Amino acid sequence: MIFQSAQSFQLSRCCWQIIYLIIYCSSYSHQQYQSLVILSNPGSQFQPINPQAQLLSTTLLLTFQSCVLACNNHILCRVFDFAVNQSNQCQLFEGNINTLGSIVSSSSSSPTSNVGYVKITSDLFTDYGRSCLLNKIVSRYLTCGSSLTLECQPHSYWDNSSSMCLPQIPTLGGACTWGVNMCREDLNLTCLQIYKCGPISYMAGKTLLNNSAVTSDTGAPVLTGVVTMAAYEINGLSAIFLVDVYLKQVVRFFDYGSSVNNITIVAKTWSGSDQLYEPYFVYIDTQNGMQSVSPLPQVVAGVSGSPGSGPHQINLPKGFAFDNQSRMYIAEMNNHRIMRWSANATYGELIAGNGTAGSGSLQLRWPRGIYIDKINGLLYVIDLGNNRVQRYSLSGSFPAVGTTIAGGNGAGSASNQLNSPESLWISPRTGSVFIADKSSHRIQRWDPGATRGITVAGSPTGTSGSDAYHLYSPQGVAIDANETYMYVCDSGNSRIQRFTLL
């Protein structure tokens, strides 16, 4: 065993380092069984990211030198500390001091506590993949696998870029590379398609409602042609609102985590024969509460029964949102534009698009869902016909110039593409955009500045299905206030799915 110190040590410590170097190296001639141990400054301890999973053993040993040898004798040990919680206590750990833990000041303020870690280099793994029978190799860092070739020790994986076996990630939500076994399988962790470690069950949706669901009071059907949805927090509970274009109604239910309760129709008919006609989107004013029949609903934008392209008209609205000044922004699909309507206004103001379908930065083609980032003054628009998401600043001149922040590479199911996107939701915490990618049967997450999306629900390759891991023509996506759950309107399967977010 070879030692390297982070600082100058007293003469007595230097002496035992040299002695153990001579004795230990004379016992093993293979370089692959030696360990280069780096020692930290006294008064330190190791802080793993998952102590329960990374702690190998805790024993009482007479000397610090004995703790060093104990680590070398344990093939999984990569870090150790000594005399942290009590004198002569030796703790052995898996992991490293960079990504899976760190060296910090000792919590016990013990001046004699210390940390050592095994330095790993690529020359220790030159025999990886070779036959362990023909070469008869003895290695501390490799083991003979079932295929009779040398492979990584348990709880580690082969990293092609560094040509080394690196420790697997022992924590839920740890960043990983999909297709590489970077996560601790013994902890039921797999590198999921969202590039995070977690159980495979995290990619399965739970069906909250299907086409057999009925209202809690009258038993009326509630899920025939749901196209969009919204999620709001009401009295500490997640309230989900569903817009059903076929039944011409808006339905609300509460997600209690383990069950669904209080399924109610909140908007359908009111005075006389007045009723909704092909509703497509819903927005709830959580500050002023909600009344569906008192006062009676009234037209706040456009001319009832008179679609058109004039500033006072609306033609096939497919999404709307409000800014901090209670001004309403409407996505007009057939007019290829976004209009802004102030309270009590008789006409709208053109914000995005020019009324002519196109793919330029000043144009839209069949805009659908929209979202307003009230904090940063940004407008996000689903540009369905161009298979992209456009972002606009609301602080400049209008019509605004759009910036493509997702898709825009033609219709398809590649990670840099969208295929008939329908709706979106923006995370206030991260700025990530969640998109219901209808014809690719998936929900895509595009992080700020990303050039590709990550599939957070459904198949990354665009395959449809009806099991818990697939979607079929999803049209709506919403996320609860805590960003714990994602709700998906799985229209082709006539169901509402809930997914746990990492």
What is the compact description of this entry?
By secondary structure, this protein is mainly beta.
Features of this protein?
502 residues, six-stranded mixed sheet, four-stranded antiparallel sheet, 6% helix, 35% strand
Describe the structure.
This protein has helices at residues 11-27, 51-54, 64-73, and strands at residues 2-5, 36-39, 44-48, 55-60, 79-82, 89-93, 101-105, 114-119, 142-144, 150-152, 156-159, 164-167, 190-191, 197-198, 206-210, 226-234, 237-244, 249-255, 260-267, 317-322, 328-332, 337-341, 349-352, 367-373, 378-383, 388-393, 403-407, 421-426, 433-437, 442-446, 454-458, 474-479, 485-490, 495-500. With 502 residues, it is mainly beta. A 6-stranded mixed beta sheet has the order 1-2-8-5-6-4. It has a 4-stranded antiparallel beta sheet with strand order 15-34-33-32, with no helix packed on it. The longest helix is centred in the N-terminal third of the chain and has 17 residues, at 11-27. The two termini are 42 Å apart. The model is unreliable at 6-32 (pLDDT under 50).
* Strand line-up in the sheet with most strands: 1-2-8-5-6-4
Amino-to-carboxy terminus distance: 42 Å
How many β strands by DSSP? 34
Helix count equals 3
Characterize the biggest β-sheet: 6 strands, mixed
Indicate the proportion of strand residues.
35-45%
Shape: elongated
Low-confidence sequence ranges: 6-32
Structural class estimated from helices and strands: mainly beta
**DSSP helix fraction:** under 10%
